[in-house]
Write a structure and sequence with these properties.
The chain is mainly α. It folds into four domains: 173 residues, Winged helix-like DNA-binding domain superfamily/Winged helix DNA-binding domain (Arc Repressor Mutant, subunit A, Orthogonal Bundle); 79 residues, Alpha Horseshoe (Serine Threonine Protein Phosphatase 5, Tetratricopeptide repeat); 239 residues, Serine Threonine Protein Phosphatase 5, Tetratricopeptide repeat, CATH 1.25.40; 157 residues. It is 63% helix and 3% strand. The strands form two sheets. It has a four-stranded mixed beta sheet. A three-stranded antiparallel beta sheet has the order 4-6-5. The longest helix is centred in the first third of the chain and has 27 residues. The two termini are 31 Å apart. About 3% of the residues have low confidence.
Length: 665
């Protein structure tokens, strides 16, 4: 029976529905109008009386009976496999009326994409808006002339124009200036009263080197607005005209910064001798900045950092090596390393430097080395990481240096996963980081502090407070050009959708949309296996069986699309905990897979992985694994298995109750 995950409703064109990819039978225009009116309500209940009034200009005595007939037919169309006399799950009866639940609607997805694109980096926004605009099949609510349909059509059409303009703005930011000019020219001809269209056309022309054409467009816009509407251009249009007249580089292709970079690096090469030790320290500082750019920059910085450390070690100066290692104080918000091999090399180098440092070496130098050991040991069992973090914090507090203390706190956060149920302690670390970093202008650590609090408050089920930190960190990310922040905020939005009771298909799509941010993020430790794990945890947390496409198994895709899978949609390191659920889903024996389950590694996903282990143990009757899971989860009894800030398996207490019932039986 369909749970809504394979049902889509389309109103960005003629009203249509698809079930499993095939077009559903929806009946005639009046019947489709019933479905459309419920779409307009966005999941809210519409009373039967209101539906009759909205669909029949002059209702006859039989209108209510006709409405019920239409609803019954629509239910058969969108839930063709629902057994007779079982309650509808998609078009439901609720009190005196009807509502749509647990279905995907193209207009709803379109609105969410346009809204979300406002705060996204240009490349992400462009991709999201391309997909959103491609969903249009014609005129919204085509063929419906009722007042509510006309109003909704006008609203969506206006939003579509906004989407077109935001996509053009993203393409301009990406340097596709010449390519967007023809489309924007047609846009302003068709919609001459939209100032934003004129502004973007002029901006694209100017950045293409066509200053005269840009000024001509701006003057055309001014003449049209003043002559036809009697209004002056708005401030953004006027500001662009002034910038173009001044030959302002900010309105044209950015070049001044490139000139400064070129001249400075050329001077550095001339003045600082090749082989000078200061070059290594400068390189380490530059690599720190490169890492914060994310994507390819993060991956390159990781590899070159190890090379810089090895080069410093070859000079036989442990204090220089310590400074090169400590200069890369880039904290992590995720407890699985992106490259375990490189992390191990850095830990070993930091340990060698600690041993070789003279007795009178500054506390700040030792603290940074110890914090590096803690940060690079994240996600590994054993006492060394937590010990290094504690000692780093002691030394850092003694120095009074806020930057050193912030780095030490970042190390303590990443190692505070000795057991489950420590979200409140991590929240305290996050609160101190936010306060310390904000006072001293340490933007990177202020961002980390907000992310730590977002994660910890998610585990504590305090969604409003977590949401405020998501907003704060998103603003910091935009202001300081930290593109990786958006990865975490988008995933948090998906988590919140899932954790606050959204239908499974809605949460599923939210996770899949968030997964788009992982492409090119440079964070394989986060990305590998995250999407399928999220979808599995969602279903297990709701008491539903796993879903998997034909032929899928551990180590392969974990979606519910029998026609294929997204690139990279593999289980990665989470395969052992997924395997029993996938076996159970296809009716196979999962006892051996459960019996050989390892303890989850310490980290943000420990609670979720223990939930998967415990639920699988109950399903196959394995008391030993169930007892291990129960003991491991007990300290987190009051938490939600959502401390990662990106996915959830639901309240831990619910799973503990299920384990306790099984063990008592």
């Amino acid at each position: 029976m369909s749970d809504g995950t394979d049902v889509r409703i389309g109103v960005l064109g003629p009203v249509t529905a698809w079930v499993g990819g095939a077009e559903a039978v929806l009946g005639g225009p009046r019947q489709r109008a019933v479905l459309a009116r419920l779409v307009v309500a966005r999941g809210r209940v519409v009373t039967a009386g209101r539906l009759v009034e909205d669909l029949w200009p002059d209702p006859s005595p039989g209108a209510l009976a006709a409405l019920r007939t239409f609803v019954a037919a629509l239910r058969r169309g969108i839930e063709p496999d629902r057994p007779a006399r079982t309650p509808a799950r998609l078009l439901v009866t609720d009190g005196p009326g009807y509502a749509l639940r647990a279905v995907a609607v193209d207009a709803w997805s379109f609105e969410a994409a346009v809204s979300g694109a406002r705060d996204q980096p240009p490349a992400t926004a462009r991709a999201a808006l391309d997909q959103a605009l491609d969903a249009w099949r014609g005129t919204a609510y085509a063929g419906l002339d009722e007042p509510w349909a006309v109003a909704e059509r006008a609203r969506l059409t206006g939003l579509r124009l906004v989407a077109v303009e935001r996509r053009a703005e993203a393409r301009i930011a990406l340097g596709e200036v010449a390519d967007v000019v023809p489309g924007l020219d047609a846009h302003v001809s068709e919609h001459p009263w939209r100032e934003e269209g004129w502004r973007l056309l002029a901006l694209a022309l100017y950045r293409s080197g066509r200053q005269a054409d840009a000024l001509a467009v701006l003057r055309r816009a001014r003449a049209l607005l003043v002559g036809e509407l009697g209004v002056d251009p708005g401030p953004r249009l006027a500001a662009l005209e002034s910038a173009v007249l001044r030959h302002d580089a900010g309105a044209g292709p950015p070049a001044a910064g490139d000139d400064v970079w070129r001249d400075t690096t050329a001077a550095y090469d001339r003045v600082v001798a090749a082989g000078a030790r200061t070059r290594l320290e400068s390189t380490a500082t530059l690599l720190r900045t490169l890492a914060l750019a994310g994507g390819e920059g993060l991956a390159a910085a990781r590899a070159q950092r190890v090379a810089a450390v090895h080069a410093a070690e070859q000079l036989g100066d442990p204090e220089l090596t310590a400074r090169v290692i400590g200069a890369f104080d880039v904290p992590g918000a995720w407890t699985r390393s992106d490259d375990a091999g490189l992390a191990a090399e850095l830990v070993a180098a930091a340990e060698r430097a600690l041993t070789a440092l003279p007795q009178d070496a500054p506390d700040a130098v030792r603290a940074r080395l110890l914090a590096t050991v803690a940060v690079e040991s994240r996600g590994l069992p054993g006492p060394r990481g937590p010990e290094a973090a504690r000692r780093a914090e002691e030394l850092a507090r003694r120095t009074g240096d806020p930057g050193v203390l912030a780095f030490a706190l970042a190390g303590r956060y990443l190692t505070r996963f000795e057991r489950t149920g420590l979200a409140a302690e991590r929240d305290e670390i996050g609160a101190e980081l936010v306060s310390l970093a904000a006072r001293h202008g340490l933007t990177t650590f202020e961002i980390l502090g907000h992310l730590v609090r977002l994660q910890a408050l998610s585990a504590l089920g305090r969604w409003e407070a977590a949401g405020r930190h998501a907003e704060d960190v998103a603003a910091l990310g935009r202001r300081h050009e930290r593109p990786l922040v958006e990865v975490f905020t988008r995933w948090f939005a998906a988590l919140r959708t899932a954790a606050t009771g959204a239908p499974v298909d809605v949460a599923d799509r939210a996770y899949r949309d968030a997964a788009a941010t992982l492409d090119g993020s440079g964070m394989p430790g986060l990305a590998d296996g995250l999407l399928p794990l999220s979808l599995l945890a969602l279903r297990v947390g709701r008491g539903l069986p796993a879903r998997m496409p034909t032929g899928a198994g551990p180590g392969t895709a974990a979606g519910d699309d029998p026609g294929g899978r997204a690139a990279g949609d593999t289980w990665g390191p989470y395969a052992p905990w997924a395997e029993p659920h996938l076996l159970l889903a296809r009716g196979a024996d999962a006892a051996v897979a459960v019996r050989r389950l390892p303890d989850p590694p310490p980290g943000l996903l420990a609670e979720t992985l223990w939930v998967l282990a415990g639920r699988a143990a109950v399903a196959v009757g394995d008391r030993r694994v169930a007892e291990r899971a129960h003991a491991a989860l007990l300290p987190a009894a009051a938490e939600v298995a959502a401390g990662s800030g990106v996915l959830t398996a639901g309240p831990v207490g619910d799973h503990l109750d299920a384990l306790a019932r099984f063990l008592a039986g």
